[in-house]
Amino acid sequence: xxxxxxxxxxxxxxxxxxxxxxxxxxxxxxxxxxxxxxxxxxxxxxxxxxxxxxxxxxxxxxxxxxxxxxxxxxxxxxxxxxxxxxxxxxxxxxxxxxxxxxxxxxxxxxxxxxxxxxxxxxxxxxxxxxxxxxxxxxxxxxxxxxxxxxxxxxxxxxxxxxxxxxxxxxxxxxxxxxxxxxxxxxxxxxxxxxxxxxxxxxxxxxxxxxxxxxxxxxxxxxxxxxxxxxxxxxxxxxxxxxxxxxxxxxxxxxxxxxxxxxxxxxxxxxxxxxxxxxxxxxxxxxxxxxxxxxxxxxxxxxxxxxxxxxxxxxxxxxxxxxxxxxxxxxxxxxxxxxxxxxxxxxxxxxxxxxxxxxxxxxxxxxxxxxxxxxxxxxxxxxxxxxxxxxxxxxxxxxxxxxxxxxxxxxxxxxxxxxxxxxxxxxxxxxxxxxxxxxxxxxxxxxxxxxxxxxxxxxxxxxxxxxxxxxxxxxxxxxxxxxxxxxxxxxxxxxxxxxxxxxxxxxxxxxxxxxxxxxxxxxxxxxxxxxxxxxxxxxxxxxxxxxxxxxxxxxxxxxxxxxxxxxxxxxxxxxxxxxxxxxxxxxxxxxxxxxxxxxxxxxxxxxxxxxxxxxxxxxxxxxxxxxxxxxxxxxxxxxxxxxxxxxxxxxxxxxxxxxxxxxxxxxxxxxxxxxxxxxxxxxxxxxxxxxxxxxxxxxxxxxxxxxxxxxxxxxxxxxxxxxxxxxxxxxxxxxxxxxxxxxxxxxxxxxxxxxxxxxxxxxxxxxxxxxxxxxxxxxxxxxxxxxxxxxxxxxxxxxxxxxxxxxxxxxxxxxxxxxxxxxxxxxxxxxxxxxxxxxxxxxxxxxxxxxxxxxxxxxxxxxxxxxxxxxxxxxxxxxxxxxxxxxxxxxxxxxxxxxxxxxxxxxxxxxxxxxxxxxxxxxxxxxxxxxxxxxxxxxxxxxxxxxxxxxxxxxxxxxxxxxxxxxxxxxxxxxx
Amino acid sequence: xxxxxxxxxxxxxxxxxxxxxxxxxxxxxxxxxxxxxxxxxxxxxxxxxxxxxxxxxxxxxxxxxxxxxxxxxxxxxxxxxxxxxxxxxxx
Lengths: 975, 91
Ligand SMILES: [Zn+2]
What we know:
By secondary structure, chain A is an alpha+beta fold. Chain A is built from 24 helices and 50 strands.
C-alpha cells in the first residue's frame, strides 16, 4: 500500500515534530529527518520529474547517489538542494524542480510522449548547430536541472583554510578506525563525513556494533588535535595534497549556509565507502523503485518503511540483508535473485524470517506510472507473472568510491572479478584507501582495515598508531559472488530502460551513440550525457560501462572508465568564492586623486588593470557625450588637465639599461641624450606590437619607461623575463614606480601659459623644455618632474609629483588655471582627442595582430640594429603575406552616423570576407562630425575608396582617409 | 594549488607566483638560425606528459624567476635531475 513511519527505530526524534510544506501539501516530519525521509514518511512517492523527458521520479538513493532536488521557498529561498542530504527544517516550504506547476501535475511531462524527438545526442547536436540561439530559450526552459527562485538564493558562505597531519574521508567503520588510530598516535586529524553523524553503514544498515561507533566518535570529540566535520563532503583532491571540502550548515556557525575548506593534508585516508548500483529494467525509474541500500537506510536512519509489499531484486548477497530488515520491519518481502543457486541452503533461513526467495528469477518490467504497482516477473523456469508490489529494492552490486584517489591521477581502475566492478590500484604515497572504498565490505573487516590504513598513514609521518580493539560484528551479507547483470533487455521495442536517472539516459541511447560511431566510453558519456547529471554517475556509471561492453562485445574491464574529476558532488560557486567577490577578490586601484575627482562629480570607471579613472565630469543637466565634447573642446581651445597617474612607470637602471631598451624597442635608444625622451614601440618576439610608450633618459644609466595603463603588468613580466632568463649577465634593475608618482597633465594651447602661472623654478621655454624634453624643479613648494609628451595632439606638460603631493598639486593647478577656464578631462575626452590626433591605443589599434608597419610606424623601425625583439618574426610574416591590415582613417557618409567600435569591414557589407574592422569611432570636436580609425586590408593604398562596416541590420559606407584628423604636421604638439 | 619552494623565501603557495611556462632555453641569436629553426624556437614547446622544467615568477614576494621540475601528471615537484639550481642566478 504505502510507505510509512514506523513506531520505533531510526535516529529521528519523534518528540520533535516539524511541520513543512511540499508542492503545496501540508506535511509533518521529525527532527533528524532529511527532506527525502520526511517525504517518504508521508508517502509522497512522486517528488520530481526527470531532466529531459519529465518522467515521474521518486527517491532512488538515500544520499549523494540520488538526484532529486528541491528548492526551498521559505523561510529563506534556496536553490537546488539535494533532498536526500538536506536536513528538514521546521516550517519550511519546499517545491520540486524541473516541474510546473508541480511534480504531480507536470505540464512538461508531455515530453515523455515525444521522447523520440529528444534522442541521445540531441543536446550535443543542437549546441553544435549554427542556429542554436533560435532553440536556446525553449530548450533552457524545458531542460534545466532546477530553477532560480525569485528573489535568488544568496547563501551566506565562507571560505576557509585548514591543515592536518591526516585527513580521513568518511566516518564509517573504516574511517572511524583510521581516525582513532591516527589521533591516538598524536597526529592532528580531520575527519570529514557527508552524513549527519558518524557510523556510515553501521547506521544505515542497522549493524549492531555495541555502541562502538558512538564511543569512538565521542573519544575523537574530546581530543584537541581532532576536528570533526559532519554534513561535509570532500569534493576535490588537488595537487600537493590540497583537498576541498564543502560543509553545509556548519555546526559551529548557525549563520552560515556553506563553508568551503581548502585543507592541506600530510596524509589522506579515503574511507568513502561504496555506492550500490542498480540492475536497470524496463520502466525501472518509476517512483517506488530504489536501491536496496536506500530502502535499508531510510529504515535504519529515519524509521521509515519504504513499502509494505517489497520485491528485492538482486544479483549478489548484500541485498539479503535489506530483504531481512524490510521483513523484520513488517513488509512482505520477495527476494528475486538472478543467481540460480544463491548461497545453497539459505532459502530455508530466509523463509523462516519472512522472505520468499525466487532463485534464478528476473524482474522484467515495472507496472504503474506515478508509482510502481507491480512488476512483471520471470521465474527460473521461464514462467511469467505479474507480481503486485509498492516497493522494488534493487541491488546490482557495489562500486567502491575511489573517485578521490582517481582525481590524483595516481590511481588506476582495475577490474575485480568477484565484485564485478572496478577497484583502484595505486602506490602508497600520499593517500591510501580503506574499507569499502577498496572493496572490503564486511563491517568488522572495515574497522580493521581502517586501523591499518591509519597506522600506515602516521608511520610515514614518523608516528606509531596504536592497535585498536575492533569489535567482532555480525555482518554476513555483503557484496560477493556478484553475477554481473548490467541491464535487463526490454522485451518489447519502446520499453525504456533507464541506466542513468539523473541524465535521463536509456540503454537505447547508449546503443544509438555506438551506432553513430561514438565508440569510446568518454565519447559515449559526452554524447549521451550519461554520468553528467546531478549524481555524476555515482550509481549507474559502471552499468553504462558494462552495457557498452555488452553492446560492443568487449570485456567490461577493457571498456575502461571515464576520467574522474572534481567536483565529487555539486558545489555552489558562491561557496568557493566565500566573501571574496567583486572588489574583495580584485580590489580596485585608485589614484590619490580619487576623492578629488568624485568631489568634482566625476563618473568613474575602469581604465585597465582595475584602475578607476574619471570617464567624464558632467555638469548639471549634461550627459556623458556632451561632457566629453565640452572637455575635449577645452583642450583644443584653451587648457585641460587630466589624471595620468595610472600610466605604467618603470625605472630601468644599470650600465646595460640602454642595451635593454634597444632590445625591447624597435627604435634606436642608445643615442638618446640625457634629459630627453623617445617614443618606443615594444614587440614580443612573435613580431606583433605588445605596447607603446615613451622612455626618458634621466641619467646616463637611468631611464623611466612608460607603458600603457592596461599593459603595465604584462610589460613588467616581459622585462623581468628578459633580464632574469634571457640576459642574466646584463646589469640592469627594473623597478615598477607607477604608484610612487601622481600626475597632472596640462594639455592645450594655453598649457605653457598656465605652467608659467604656477611659478616654476625652472625654465619652461620652448628651447629649454621642448617636445620630448623634461625638467625637474618645484612649483612653489611642490617638487615636480615634467615630461613633454602628448597623447592629445596639443602641447602637453606631464607634471609628476611624489604621490603625497597629489591633491596639493591639483588644487594649485586648478586655482592658477581659473583665469584660463581650465577644465578637468576624463577618459572619454582623452579618447576623442587621441583619435583626432591619430595616436594608437593598446586594445584598440594595438589588438595583438598588428606590427609597426601596419600602424604606420614603419619609420620608427631601426635600420641599423641587427636584432631587436620581434624583428625576425615580423620580417618573416611580412614576407609570407604582404597583404596586411593597415591603419586608416574612416569618415562615415553621414557625418552624424557613429559606428560601434569593433564593427567588421567587409566588401560591400556582405556577411563574409572580413577585410578589417573599425577600431575607434568618436564625434570629433575639431571637425564637428563623426570620425573613425580602423584597420583595413591594404588600407594605405585605398585612400578615397568607399568601404563598408557591417553592423546589426545595417551597412554603413565609410570613406578611407589618412589616419590623422588634427595637427597633422604635429606643429601644435611641438609648440 | 601547488606548493613551490623558493630558495629565497621558502615554501610558498602557488598564488604568490605567476607561471611563465616551459623553461625554454635563453633566446638564441636569430641570425644564427634558419627561418624554420627560428619559428620552431619561438613556437614549439615539448609539452611533456611527465617530468619537465618550467619557470615561475615569484612576483608577490622576492621577484625572482625560478626553474622547477614538475611532473605534469602528478604535480610532484622534484629536485632538478640535471643538478641545476632552481634560480638562474646572475653571475
Ligand atoms: Zn621568493
